[in-house]
Amino acid sequence: MGSPDPTFQETSRGWAVVRWIPAIEALRGVAALSVIVGHAIGQVHPTVEGAVVSPVQVLFSWLGSWGVALFFVLSGFCIHLPQAAGLAAHGELRSPAWGGFYARRCRRLLPTHYAALVLSALVGLRFEANLVHPPAAPTFLAHVFMVHTWWAVAFHSINGVLWTIAIEFHFYFAYPVFLALRRKLGPMGTTAALLVVGLAVYGAASVLLAGSESRGVGQNLFVVYWWQWAFGAALAEIYASGRAPSWAPLFTTRAAPWVWGISSLALAFADIVVLRLHVRYWLLPLFCAMFLLSVVIRPWNPTPLGVALSRAGLISYSLYLIHPVALALGAEATAGLPGIVRILVLIVLSVLCSALFFRVCEAPFLPKRAKATTAASALFVS
Protein backbone atom coordinates (compact mmCIF):
# COMPACT_ATOMS: atom_id res chain seq x y z
CA MET A 1 0.00 0.00 0.00
CA GLY A 2 1.56 3.25 -1.11
CA SER A 3 4.45 1.57 -2.96
CA PRO A 4 5.83 3.64 -5.86
CA ASP A 5 4.69 2.67 -9.32
CA PRO A 6 7.38 2.64 -12.04
CA THR A 7 5.09 4.60 -14.36
CA PHE A 8 5.24 7.57 -12.01
CA GLN A 9 8.22 9.72 -11.14
CA GLU A 10 8.75 12.34 -8.47
CA THR A 11 9.26 15.81 -9.92
CA SER A 12 11.43 18.65 -8.70
CA ARG A 13 8.51 21.04 -8.15
CA GLY A 14 5.66 18.71 -7.41
CA TRP A 15 4.98 15.56 -5.41
CA ALA A 16 5.69 11.86 -5.49
CA VAL A 17 2.97 10.03 -7.43
CA VAL A 18 1.99 6.48 -6.57
CA ARG A 19 -0.62 4.18 -8.05
CA TRP A 20 -2.04 3.00 -4.71
CA ILE A 21 -2.85 6.11 -2.70
CA PRO A 22 -3.34 5.23 0.99
CA ALA A 23 -5.20 8.46 1.72
CA ILE A 24 -7.98 7.47 -0.68
CA GLU A 25 -9.16 4.74 1.69
CA ALA A 26 -9.26 7.22 4.56
CA LEU A 27 -11.25 9.68 2.44
CA ARG A 28 -13.73 6.95 1.53
CA GLY A 29 -14.07 6.18 5.22
CA VAL A 30 -14.67 9.83 6.05
CA ALA A 31 -17.32 10.13 3.33
CA ALA A 32 -19.16 6.95 4.35
CA LEU A 33 -19.12 7.75 8.06
CA SER A 34 -20.31 11.29 7.34
CA VAL A 35 -23.35 9.96 5.50
CA ILE A 36 -24.08 7.51 8.33
CA VAL A 37 -23.89 10.21 11.00
CA GLY A 38 -26.12 12.53 9.00
CA HIS A 39 -28.74 9.83 8.42
CA ALA A 40 -28.62 8.59 12.02
CA ILE A 41 -29.37 12.10 13.25
CA GLY A 42 -32.13 12.41 10.67
CA GLN A 43 -33.65 9.14 11.89
CA VAL A 44 -33.71 10.32 15.52
CA HIS A 45 -34.47 13.99 14.87
CA PRO A 46 -36.23 14.24 11.49
CA THR A 47 -36.32 17.73 10.03
CA VAL A 48 -39.77 19.29 10.20
CA GLU A 49 -40.47 22.22 7.91
CA GLY A 50 -40.74 25.43 9.88
CA ALA A 51 -39.29 23.95 13.07
CA VAL A 52 -36.38 25.59 14.87
CA VAL A 53 -33.18 23.65 14.22
CA SER A 54 -30.01 24.03 16.30
CA PRO A 55 -26.69 24.89 14.58
CA VAL A 56 -25.32 21.51 15.64
CA GLN A 57 -28.20 19.71 13.95
CA VAL A 58 -27.77 21.84 10.82
CA LEU A 59 -24.07 20.92 10.63
CA PHE A 60 -24.51 17.20 11.22
CA SER A 61 -27.47 16.99 8.85
CA TRP A 62 -25.23 18.56 6.18
CA LEU A 63 -22.84 15.61 6.46
CA GLY A 64 -25.01 13.46 4.22
CA SER A 65 -24.75 15.89 1.30
CA TRP A 66 -21.06 16.43 2.08
CA GLY A 67 -20.31 12.71 1.94
CA VAL A 68 -22.16 12.19 -1.36
CA ALA A 69 -20.35 15.12 -3.02
CA LEU A 70 -17.00 13.75 -1.86
CA PHE A 71 -17.93 10.28 -3.16
CA PHE A 72 -18.78 11.61 -6.63
CA VAL A 73 -15.50 13.54 -6.88
CA LEU A 74 -13.57 10.54 -5.53
CA SER A 75 -15.18 8.30 -8.14
CA GLY A 76 -14.08 10.50 -11.03
CA PHE A 77 -10.58 10.70 -9.56
CA CYS A 78 -10.18 6.95 -9.05
CA ILE A 79 -11.81 5.77 -12.29
CA HIS A 80 -9.83 8.19 -14.45
CA LEU A 81 -6.49 7.79 -12.64
CA PRO A 82 -5.22 4.87 -14.82
CA GLN A 83 -5.88 6.90 -17.97
CA ALA A 84 -4.32 9.97 -16.34
CA ALA A 85 -1.24 7.85 -15.54
CA GLY A 86 -0.99 6.79 -19.15
CA LEU A 87 -1.25 10.40 -20.26
CA ALA A 88 1.55 11.41 -17.88
CA ALA A 89 3.76 8.54 -19.03
CA HIS A 90 3.12 8.55 -22.79
CA GLY A 91 1.71 11.99 -23.56
CA GLU A 92 -1.44 10.41 -24.95
CA LEU A 93 -4.88 9.91 -23.40
CA ARG A 94 -5.81 6.32 -24.23
CA SER A 95 -9.15 4.63 -23.68
CA PRO A 96 -9.26 1.51 -21.52
CA ALA A 97 -10.20 -1.86 -22.99
CA TRP A 98 -13.92 -1.34 -22.64
CA GLY A 99 -14.86 -4.98 -22.22
CA GLY A 100 -12.51 -5.38 -19.28
CA PHE A 101 -13.42 -1.99 -17.85
CA TYR A 102 -17.14 -2.74 -17.66
CA ALA A 103 -16.56 -6.31 -16.52
CA ARG A 104 -14.46 -5.07 -13.59
CA ARG A 105 -16.97 -2.39 -12.66
CA CYS A 106 -19.89 -4.83 -12.75
CA ARG A 107 -18.07 -7.50 -10.77
CA ARG A 108 -16.95 -4.98 -8.18
CA LEU A 109 -20.29 -3.28 -7.61
CA LEU A 110 -23.28 -5.25 -8.86
CA PRO A 111 -23.25 -8.42 -6.67
CA THR A 112 -22.92 -6.32 -3.52
CA HIS A 113 -25.54 -3.86 -4.76
CA TYR A 114 -28.05 -6.61 -5.54
CA ALA A 115 -27.45 -8.28 -2.18
CA ALA A 116 -28.11 -4.95 -0.46
CA LEU A 117 -31.22 -4.42 -2.60
CA VAL A 118 -32.69 -7.80 -1.64
CA LEU A 119 -31.83 -7.31 2.04
CA SER A 120 -33.34 -3.82 2.01
CA ALA A 121 -36.53 -5.12 0.40
CA LEU A 122 -36.87 -7.88 2.99
CA VAL A 123 -36.27 -5.53 5.92
CA GLY A 124 -38.64 -2.96 4.40
CA LEU A 125 -41.49 -5.48 4.59
CA ARG A 126 -41.36 -5.27 8.38
CA PHE A 127 -39.29 -2.25 9.44
CA GLU A 128 -40.17 0.84 7.45
CA ALA A 129 -38.01 3.87 8.35
CA ASN A 130 -36.76 7.15 6.90
CA LEU A 131 -34.59 5.46 4.29
CA VAL A 132 -36.10 1.96 3.99
CA HIS A 133 -39.54 1.34 2.50
CA PRO A 134 -41.64 -1.68 1.50
CA PRO A 135 -40.80 -2.90 -2.01
CA ALA A 136 -43.10 -3.18 -5.01
CA ALA A 137 -42.34 -5.28 -8.08
CA PRO A 138 -42.03 -2.32 -10.50
CA THR A 139 -39.74 -0.32 -8.22
CA PHE A 140 -37.64 -3.40 -7.47
CA LEU A 141 -37.13 -4.04 -11.20
CA ALA A 142 -36.27 -0.37 -11.72
CA HIS A 143 -33.49 -0.79 -9.15
CA VAL A 144 -32.26 -3.97 -10.81
CA PHE A 145 -31.80 -2.17 -14.14
CA MET A 146 -30.49 1.05 -12.53
CA VAL A 147 -33.30 3.21 -13.94
CA HIS A 148 -35.06 4.09 -10.69
CA THR A 149 -33.59 7.60 -10.88
CA TRP A 150 -35.78 8.17 -13.97
CA TRP A 151 -39.03 7.56 -12.12
CA ALA A 152 -40.31 9.67 -9.24
CA VAL A 153 -42.09 6.77 -7.51
CA ALA A 154 -38.98 4.60 -7.56
CA PHE A 155 -36.32 7.24 -6.94
CA HIS A 156 -36.02 6.90 -3.14
CA SER A 157 -37.88 3.60 -2.88
CA ILE A 158 -36.70 0.47 -1.02
CA ASN A 159 -33.36 1.93 0.12
CA GLY A 160 -33.04 5.70 0.00
CA VAL A 161 -29.31 5.81 -0.80
CA LEU A 162 -29.36 3.52 -3.83
CA TRP A 163 -30.12 6.39 -6.19
CA THR A 164 -26.46 7.39 -6.03
CA ILE A 165 -25.37 3.91 -7.17
CA ALA A 166 -27.50 4.29 -10.30
CA ILE A 167 -25.96 7.72 -10.92
CA GLU A 168 -22.54 6.14 -10.48
CA PHE A 169 -23.30 3.54 -13.16
CA HIS A 170 -24.56 6.26 -15.48
CA PHE A 171 -21.14 7.92 -15.08
CA TYR A 172 -19.50 4.65 -16.14
CA PHE A 173 -21.78 4.22 -19.14
CA ALA A 174 -20.95 7.78 -20.22
CA TYR A 175 -17.19 7.42 -19.71
CA PRO A 176 -16.47 7.00 -23.46
CA VAL A 177 -18.35 10.26 -24.09
CA PHE A 178 -16.38 11.93 -21.31
CA LEU A 179 -13.07 10.85 -22.85
CA ALA A 180 -14.16 12.19 -26.26
CA LEU A 181 -15.06 15.52 -24.68
CA ARG A 182 -11.81 15.54 -22.70
CA ARG A 183 -9.76 15.15 -25.89
CA LYS A 184 -11.51 18.12 -27.48
CA LEU A 185 -11.92 20.48 -24.52
CA GLY A 186 -9.21 19.49 -22.05
CA PRO A 187 -9.86 18.47 -18.43
CA MET A 188 -11.01 21.81 -17.04
CA GLY A 189 -12.81 22.76 -20.24
CA THR A 190 -14.80 19.53 -20.04
CA THR A 191 -15.62 20.18 -16.40
CA ALA A 192 -16.80 23.70 -17.23
CA ALA A 193 -18.90 22.51 -20.17
CA LEU A 194 -20.56 19.80 -18.07
CA LEU A 195 -21.19 22.32 -15.29
CA VAL A 196 -23.09 24.48 -17.79
CA VAL A 197 -25.07 21.44 -18.95
CA GLY A 198 -25.84 20.49 -15.35
CA LEU A 199 -27.04 23.99 -14.51
CA ALA A 200 -29.17 24.10 -17.66
CA VAL A 201 -30.84 20.74 -16.98
CA TYR A 202 -31.40 21.58 -13.32
CA GLY A 203 -32.84 24.98 -14.20
CA ALA A 204 -35.08 23.57 -16.92
CA ALA A 205 -36.46 20.94 -14.53
CA SER A 206 -37.06 23.58 -11.84
CA VAL A 207 -39.10 25.75 -14.20
CA LEU A 208 -40.77 23.33 -16.61
CA LEU A 209 -41.62 20.65 -14.03
CA ALA A 210 -42.55 22.95 -11.13
CA GLY A 211 -45.33 21.36 -9.10
CA SER A 212 -44.78 17.96 -10.70
CA GLU A 213 -43.47 14.82 -9.00
CA SER A 214 -41.01 14.57 -11.88
CA ARG A 215 -39.28 17.77 -10.89
CA GLY A 216 -36.96 15.94 -8.50
CA VAL A 217 -36.16 13.41 -11.21
CA GLY A 218 -35.12 16.12 -13.64
CA GLN A 219 -33.06 17.88 -11.01
CA ASN A 220 -31.18 14.68 -10.18
CA LEU A 221 -30.38 13.22 -13.58
CA PHE A 222 -26.79 12.07 -13.84
CA VAL A 223 -25.93 14.97 -16.19
CA VAL A 224 -26.63 17.36 -13.31
CA TYR A 225 -23.87 15.68 -11.29
CA TRP A 226 -21.59 14.73 -14.16
CA TRP A 227 -19.42 17.85 -13.78
CA GLN A 228 -18.54 16.78 -10.24
CA TRP A 229 -17.25 13.45 -11.51
CA ALA A 230 -15.43 15.26 -14.33
CA PHE A 231 -13.74 17.59 -11.85
CA GLY A 232 -12.48 14.57 -9.93
CA ALA A 233 -11.10 13.19 -13.21
CA ALA A 234 -9.39 16.51 -13.94
CA LEU A 235 -7.74 16.38 -10.53
CA ALA A 236 -6.54 12.86 -11.31
CA GLU A 237 -4.61 14.28 -14.27
CA ILE A 238 -3.10 16.99 -12.09
CA TYR A 239 -2.10 14.42 -9.50
CA ALA A 240 -0.68 11.94 -12.06
CA SER A 241 1.43 14.66 -13.69
CA GLY A 242 3.28 15.19 -10.41
CA ARG A 243 3.73 18.84 -11.37
CA ALA A 244 2.33 21.81 -9.51
CA PRO A 245 0.19 24.15 -11.67
CA SER A 246 0.27 27.92 -11.25
CA TRP A 247 -2.64 27.79 -8.80
CA ALA A 248 -0.99 25.09 -6.67
CA PRO A 249 -0.84 27.22 -3.49
CA LEU A 250 -4.60 26.63 -3.21
CA PHE A 251 -3.93 22.99 -2.33
CA THR A 252 -0.23 22.62 -1.52
CA THR A 253 -0.01 24.78 1.60
CA ARG A 254 0.11 22.99 4.92
CA ALA A 255 -3.25 24.42 5.99
CA ALA A 256 -5.05 23.57 2.73
CA PRO A 257 -6.78 20.34 3.89
CA TRP A 258 -8.09 22.12 6.97
CA VAL A 259 -9.19 25.20 5.03
CA TRP A 260 -11.08 23.26 2.37
CA GLY A 261 -12.49 20.71 4.81
CA ILE A 262 -13.79 23.30 7.26
CA SER A 263 -15.05 25.58 4.49
CA SER A 264 -17.00 22.77 2.87
CA LEU A 265 -18.67 22.00 6.21
CA ALA A 266 -19.35 25.69 6.87
CA LEU A 267 -21.50 25.78 3.74
CA ALA A 268 -24.16 24.15 5.91
CA PHE A 269 -24.88 27.65 7.25
CA ALA A 270 -24.85 29.48 3.90
CA ASP A 271 -28.04 28.44 2.11
CA ILE A 272 -28.20 31.25 -0.46
CA VAL A 273 -30.83 30.81 -3.20
CA VAL A 274 -30.39 32.52 -6.58
CA LEU A 275 -33.04 31.92 -9.27
CA ARG A 276 -34.29 28.84 -7.39
CA LEU A 277 -30.72 27.55 -7.21
CA HIS A 278 -29.28 26.57 -3.83
CA VAL A 279 -25.76 27.89 -4.40
CA ARG A 280 -24.13 25.87 -1.64
CA TYR A 281 -24.89 22.56 -3.38
CA TRP A 282 -22.93 23.76 -6.41
CA LEU A 283 -20.03 25.09 -4.37
CA LEU A 284 -19.77 21.98 -2.19
CA PRO A 285 -18.24 19.67 -4.86
CA LEU A 286 -15.61 22.31 -5.65
CA PHE A 287 -14.61 22.53 -2.00
CA CYS A 288 -14.64 18.74 -1.62
CA ALA A 289 -12.49 18.36 -4.75
CA MET A 290 -9.88 20.77 -3.43
CA PHE A 291 -9.97 18.99 -0.08
CA LEU A 292 -9.34 15.70 -1.92
CA LEU A 293 -6.40 17.04 -3.92
CA SER A 294 -4.82 18.73 -0.90
CA VAL A 295 -4.90 15.38 0.93
CA VAL A 296 -3.68 12.98 -1.77
CA ILE A 297 -0.56 14.94 -2.74
CA ARG A 298 0.84 14.65 0.78
CA PRO A 299 2.96 11.73 2.00
CA TRP A 300 0.88 9.29 4.01
CA ASN A 301 1.83 9.41 7.67
CA PRO A 302 -0.87 7.29 9.31
CA THR A 303 -2.05 8.30 12.74
CA PRO A 304 -4.33 6.03 14.80
CA LEU A 305 -7.30 8.06 13.51
CA GLY A 306 -6.06 7.77 9.95
CA VAL A 307 -5.69 3.99 10.29
CA ALA A 308 -9.22 3.73 11.70
CA LEU A 309 -10.61 5.80 8.83
CA SER A 310 -8.70 3.68 6.31
CA ARG A 311 -10.24 0.54 7.78
CA ALA A 312 -13.65 2.17 7.49
CA GLY A 313 -12.72 3.04 3.91
CA LEU A 314 -12.09 -0.61 3.13
CA ILE A 315 -15.74 -1.36 3.84
CA SER A 316 -17.10 2.03 2.73
CA TYR A 317 -19.27 0.56 -0.04
CA SER A 318 -20.97 -1.79 2.42
CA LEU A 319 -21.20 1.00 4.99
CA TYR A 320 -22.98 3.16 2.46
CA LEU A 321 -25.39 0.49 1.21
CA ILE A 322 -26.30 -1.16 4.49
CA HIS A 323 -26.50 1.63 7.05
CA PRO A 324 -30.13 2.45 6.08
CA VAL A 325 -31.02 -1.17 6.82
CA ALA A 326 -29.25 -1.01 10.19
CA LEU A 327 -31.02 2.26 11.02
CA ALA A 328 -34.37 0.69 10.15
CA LEU A 329 -33.64 -2.36 12.30
CA GLY A 330 -32.45 -0.26 15.23
CA ALA A 331 -35.01 2.56 15.09
CA GLU A 332 -37.74 0.66 16.90
CA ALA A 333 -35.44 -1.10 19.38
CA THR A 334 -33.75 2.13 20.46
CA ALA A 335 -36.89 4.28 20.61
CA GLY A 336 -36.76 4.66 24.40
CA LEU A 337 -33.16 5.84 24.62
CA PRO A 338 -32.10 9.48 25.07
CA GLY A 339 -31.41 11.25 21.78
CA ILE A 340 -27.60 11.36 21.81
CA VAL A 341 -27.32 7.80 23.14
CA ARG A 342 -29.74 6.58 20.51
CA ILE A 343 -27.75 8.24 17.74
CA LEU A 344 -24.50 6.68 18.95
CA VAL A 345 -26.10 3.23 19.23
CA LEU A 346 -27.48 3.52 15.69
CA ILE A 347 -24.08 4.55 14.33
CA VAL A 348 -22.33 1.62 16.04
CA LEU A 349 -25.04 -0.77 14.84
CA SER A 350 -24.62 0.54 11.29
CA VAL A 351 -20.87 -0.10 11.36
CA LEU A 352 -21.23 -3.61 12.80
CA CYS A 353 -23.96 -4.65 10.37
CA SER A 354 -21.98 -3.21 7.46
CA ALA A 355 -18.80 -5.02 8.53
CA LEU A 356 -20.67 -8.33 8.60
CA PHE A 357 -22.29 -7.61 5.23
CA PHE A 358 -18.89 -6.69 3.80
CA ARG A 359 -17.36 -9.96 4.89
CA VAL A 360 -20.19 -12.07 3.47
CA CYS A 361 -21.33 -10.17 0.38
CA GLU A 362 -18.58 -7.78 -0.74
CA ALA A 363 -15.16 -9.25 0.11
CA PRO A 364 -15.55 -12.28 -2.24
CA PHE A 365 -15.78 -9.91 -5.21
CA LEU A 366 -12.81 -7.69 -4.40
CA PRO A 367 -9.75 -7.65 -6.66
CA LYS A 368 -6.83 -9.73 -5.36
CA ARG A 369 -4.79 -6.72 -4.24
CA ALA A 370 -7.74 -5.28 -2.36
CA LYS A 371 -8.32 -8.66 -0.72
CA ALA A 372 -4.72 -8.71 0.46
CA THR A 373 -5.08 -5.22 1.88
CA THR A 374 -8.35 -6.12 3.53
CA ALA A 375 -6.86 -9.25 5.07
CA ALA A 376 -4.38 -7.03 6.88
CA SER A 377 -7.21 -5.19 8.63
CA ALA A 378 -7.54 -6.87 12.00
CA LEU A 379 -10.54 -4.75 12.95
CA PHE A 380 -12.96 -5.98 10.30
CA VAL A 381 -11.46 -9.15 8.90
CA SER A 382 -9.62 -11.35 11.35
Please describe what this structure looks like.
- This protein is mainly α.
- The chain has one domain.
- Helix 8 packs antiparallel against helix 10 and helix 10 packs parallel to helix 13.
- The N terminus and C terminus are likely disordered.
Task: Please give a handful of descriptors for the protein shown.
single chain, mainly alpha, two-stranded antiparallel ribbon
Contiguous low-pLDDT stretches (5 residues minimum) are 1-12, 371-382
Beta-strand residue percentage: under 5%
Which oligomerization state do the chains in this entry correspond to?
A: single chain
Record the strand order, biggest sheet. 1-2
Q: Briefly note the structural class of the backbone.
A: mainly alpha
H/E element sequence: HHHHHHHHHHHHEEHHHHH
Distance between the termini: 19 Å
Number of strands: 2
Count of individual helical segments:
17
